[in-house]
User: Fold these one by one.
Assistant:
Number 1:
Amino acid sequence: MSVDGQSVTGPQGAVSPQPAFSQSGLGKAQTPRRAVVVGGNRIPFARTGGAYTKSSNQDMLTAALDGLIARFGLQDERIGEVAAGAVLKHSRDFNLTREAVLGSALSAETPAYDLQQACATGLETVLGLANKIKLGQIESAIAGGVDSASDAPIAVSEGLREVLLDLNRAKTLPQRLRILARLRPKDLAPDAPNTGEPRTGLSMGEHQAVTTGQWKISREAQDEVAYNSHRNLAAAYDAGFFDDLLTPYRGLTRDSNLRADTTLEKLASLKPVFGRNLGSEATMTAGNSTPLTDGASTVLLASEEWADQHDLPKLAAVVDGESAAVDFVHGKDGLLMAPAFAVPRLLARNGLTLDDIDYFEIHEAFAGTVLSTLAAWEDEEFGRTRLGLDGAFGKVDRTRLNVNGSSLAAGHPFAATGGRIVATLAKMLHEKGQVDGRPALGLISVCAAGGQGVVALLEAQ
Amino acid sequence: MNTGQPIILGEMPSLSKLYVNAAAGAARRRILGSPAEAALPPVGHEVRAVLADVANLTAYQHLVGETASDVLPAGFIHALAFPVAISVMNRDDFPLPLLGMIHLRNVVEHRSPALFTEPLDITARAENLRAHRSGTQLDVIAEVRGSGEDTARWRGVSTYLAKGVFLPGIDKASATVEEEEFTAPDPTAVWQLGVDAGRAYAAVSGDFNPIHLSVLSAKALGLRRSIAHGMYLASRALADVGAAKGESFRWDVNFAAPVFLPARVALDISTIQAEGGAWLRSDYVAWNPRSGRKHFTGSVTVL
């Protein structure tokens, strides 16, 4: 295949699409049994430096976990496995998830592991654990993620670190003095984490500004995405949608970034913060980019048998997932464009098109990310030359996109976003039930640092 | 006797002022001598609508190893109620010297959880003045209610000893209790307590009793080094018991030998389960791993 991109049938080109729907629903044709989302729980997300300033990742993950345990009566329950992670992680937190389990009301005999795939961490924990359930290795699982930009790790400089390690190895006083003499004042400056890509030195926002310019996404279109996010999230809160998805923490009952009263005029008045030194017009503001946020989320997954035995709900099945990565380093694709490749592959494998999807959850890292992805899918040339299709991949019905708000309004504690979206979408699908005689379908797309993306398909149960 | 309604204090008493006043009271007592009639204050004290400070709560939870949830740990409530308790022991009609008192035993009934967002009414009173083989002991009873509620969610009984103080009208304790021989079990944990452990707990609990702060301030009160707060040790043990204890439990601790700082403290926690696996009780004992001397014992029991 002469495609300078990522053909939807994958590098081997040999994967034939499965029949779309069998009598028993999607996914059963390929897998021995289903993995279902029982429910979720998160704490409200807080803008950095706000209500969770003094709370550590372990504190927040445990709080989200304990809320989930209380909601589904899991006290003393031995769960098959718990997987979670954090993007900004202290080195002492190497066993973050297991420590959170030990501090929770779960049975201490519940195993746990940490996972890290930048902003896709949360969604990847869901997919990995769902696969274990489908394979029959475990019956129940809790997926999650947490991040604190407030309580971020600060490392010592490379110079000081090398001196300290060498000092530890030195045996004599003269050796120690020689090593100490290497220290320079600049070595005492701490090394704080940043959102820059190691290979390009550009921040995520600057990367997206390049992509946003390339796809000619207007300022107005981005502000509209942000406006809809706030309006939809506020409406969902007002309708009580999050009542069984959220536990208050440290005085917060709603995401502190949510501006229910924001207007397009207010958003239009903000000054651009990214892409000010690029050729194209700078369009990305603090309003249409997600702020740094603290928070945690969890999702309870199970086999149908386990859910039934425990008399627990089955909201949606985790049907399938797909990862993709792009070569962003020298600008072949935008840093956050990997989902533009992952989604076509995922849908093709399941014999679906964008028209079959009832709800789209496209993580709003930036409004420009969502719009660039949609623009790529609607672009004939991108479809032909990059996806190996006959023409454009398709058009997303905007009335089905992020209908209960997304990261621009809720905030985005990196690893916690996947769990937020999976629990939200599973509940929406369950409420929707059947569409035209088949279970409602939902698609999740999450972009991540390093030019990666993870996407997933959920089906109403 | 404790008959009347408690005296309502307008605000939470300041512990540092109480300690200064206690030092002055000790000097006064030295000059004037003890009162002829040995009796506890006839009234208790109450402070209403007390709110926990969330930053302080988080610091406390991190220090003792509690999960940083919105629920107030039982030991944190003790610290919250402590100034009210001390204000009773600092009254002019309190018959024993406050400074230098030894915390012998503490029993808490944690009946239902309180969140940091809830205003709490805190009462404290002194009761049960009685002899001890080496002085005089009494109980300070603190109760914590949700503001306006009738029944206490938390009730703590702290037993203190005024060593070497024998009051008129109180008989000497007759029999000395035979101490059981202690053989240290295998530890389930070993704590490394730095020389600053007392200052760290003082910062989160507000209990700046000089015996915990530094070698010098402890020596001024007759100790060879500073010692760890008993309630810090007991609170760490409670945190170590973990979430198994549920929302309502009884938590007791008996203090034996003080922990001189810095120290290594060995701990054993053993869990007793019902048939079927339900948690019934966790017993703990802590000792000096070098000398084998017992520091404290206690248990957390289902209520």
Note: Confidence is low (pLDDT under 50) at residues 12-24 of chain A.
Number 2:
Amino acid sequence: MFEGWDAVALARAQFAFTMSFHIIFPAFSIGLASYLAVLEALWLWTGREVFINLFHYWLKIFAVAFGMGVVSGIVMSYQFGTNWSVFSDKTGPVIGPLMAYEVLTAFFLEAGFLGVMLFGLNRVGPRLHFLATLMVAVGTLISAFWILSANSWMQTPTGYAVNASGQFVAADWLEVIFNPSFPYRLVHMVLAAYLTTALVVGAVGAYHLLRDQHLAGPRVMFSMAMWMATFVAPIQILAGDQHGLNTLEHQPVKIMAMEGHFQSHKDGAPLILFGWPNQTAGRVDFAVEIPKLGSVILKHSPTAPMDGLDTVPRENWPPVPITFWSFRIMVGLGFLMMGLGLLSAWMRWRGQFYSSRFLHMFAMLMGPAGFIAVLAGWITTETGRQPFTVYGLLRTADSVSPLAAPAVGSSLLAFVIVYFAVFAAGVIYLLRLMAAPPHPGEPGPPRDVPARAAGITPAAATAAEDAS
Amino acid sequence: MSVAVDLATVWAFIIAFAVFVYIVMDGFDLGLGILFPLFPRKADRDIIMNSVAPVWDGNETWLVLGGGGLMAAFPLAYAVLMPALYTPVIAMLVGLIFRGVAFEFRWRTQRVRNRWDGAFFGGSLVAALAQGIALGAILQGVHVEGRQYAGGWWDWLTPFSVLTGISLVMGYALLGATWMVMKTEGALRDKAYQLSWVLLFAMLGAIVAVSIATPFLSVQYTERWFTWPNIILTAPVPVAVAGVTVLLLRSLANKYDYQPFFLTLALFFLSYAGLGISMYPYIVPQSITIWEAASPPNSQIFMLVGVAILIPLILAYTGWAYWVFRGKVRPGGGYH
């Protein structure tokens, strides 16, 4: 099997597949960890039972999602070596330390405090427990910092030199870490994680409100989530715009692909809304476009000249159709999110926030929108920087391990089967947890119970299940 | 140059330390999974699972540090070894996925809980076996040309690597059994004692077999262990193994709670030190030394700062987490 296949294509497919699966979980757990910290803080501050109920409700969901993130993440840290050994050898001295710092400052922090966060409330008391929750939340953010720094360096490499063995080495670590695209990518991704989580929380709240609009827990979570959508979605669109301008400066070819600009425009480029990019012919078929608007958005002048892919050697073209379409999916969903935020604010003002079935249906349908937008966004940025792994310096085709197609093909097949089996089950369990409304006395200890020495462990609930 | 030499050695010790902490922490954790079929009662399984549920994630983080640290500090070794160990590494990752998700999934379903218990066992077994095989494959050396692995896709599979694979499974199972002695009570603990006896002899047999087989792999190993004056340094290792074994047998006979686990760790440490003596200064035996594989000094120094500050912190709060969940695990309250 897989004899005669292209080993490079298989390795790319494997990375794209395992990475896409993985990113879903961090995108959710970054936001959810922060949300849990907020819920616990509100509980400690106000003492209202609804907050600790919501905390325990989402904690169970967090535990399942986090576990899937961990195991799919371990795969990533070894895949660089198994499938991209030349890349690892050449860039290890630069991005290796960034990832090592991610492990040291973030992964250990999350993992070290996760056990206490999940099982330790009765053992350590509310204050230390809140500290543990906070550490997990901070850990997820630190993790985003380092991994996006590493990714951004691959997109916009600065502060490096090349040594005698052909390896990239750091000339200036601050320039490596804070490379030009990093601040934009970090803000864009963290906001995306927060929005993604808000949309899931909102959808779960809406689902339960559709059945009973008087439930305390769903009302609180729906309200919190819609505030996030109202404020963060517009900020995210602005952040995305800034990120795009930064990309135009440092990776103009990626912008050409995103915009479908095959041709150069000397006196103002159009904004192509839709169309079918034809990579072979070098044009966009069936294009629906608005004249000059492309230049207005990207250069803030209707007549600003813009280069197209016709100025770039063909062997350096990214796959235009994927970049073009994934970008549109992301942007479209972003505007839908803003629409949801605005509608919810309007309904709040009208006093129909908890009763509007339309709002609740809309919010429920938007539940997965964050994940799709995150995936589409990553596909845009990763496809758009092809055919390079280190932008302009190291080609993807020159980065792979000395691979045999059957080996990569078999491992790809194994990952596909395992991921679909395991993570499908996980998603079912998550949905099952979400389908039950949070109720008073959500399993988890009440406040101010003195710490006791024995077993705060998962056994009791199952014991209770068996008894019932 | 002298700075670079020292740094590479320091980093070799750091990576070795990370890998050893991983073995110490995830070893018993995987061992519990390997022993799972021997404890078919659901109540027992719940207790076994709960004895590691709060800490397993931290345990596996050391594996990420081992992989990430190797890429950062010795990128050439990482780039050569990963393709050489392609199949065992992928098998290990898949195994870890199955056992990792089982921790949460088995509480989320009544109907197919047995299936996730099976995944916990199978995943743990495959991961342990793959790690042991990888170790054997590294020890026997890999074929390198230029800066790349140049061997075949099945080079890792030899009688020797199968032996090291089975040995590690035995060793992890012993760690799991002695952990259970430490963390459980009553009939569960009694059964763990019985298992510990059997597994101890199995592990000793494995240590002897690997020790006899290793010198035949390469002249370098033979010279390292059996020539004057090296023998002054190497002889204490087998002597210490014998000493620890006596203590371990005594602690099992006296039914101590804590000693069996920590003495088993001592046995692991001695075996691990033995491996280090065999390999040093090669990171890919017989082809690449730690100095040839090392990152430039400014990468290694940059990370050394972080390691010096953060590893003590990590050990401190990890220790705290273990302290919070200290003592015997009993059936009791929870969030599930």
Note: Chain A touches chain B through 90 residues (CB under 8 Å).
